[in-house]
Amino acid sequence: MSKKVEKKPVIVTPDPRLRQKSTKISQIDDEVRKIIDEMIQSCIDWENEHEFELSAAMAAPQLGYNRRIIVVREDMSDKNNTNFIALINPEVIKTEGKTLYDYEGCLSVPSIYGKVPRPAKARIKALLDDGTEVRLKPTDFLARTILHEIDHLNGILFIDHIKDDPNAFYKLDDKGDLVPLDYNKYIKGNKDLFPDDDNE
Question: What is this structure's pTM?
Answer without folding.
Answer: 0.93
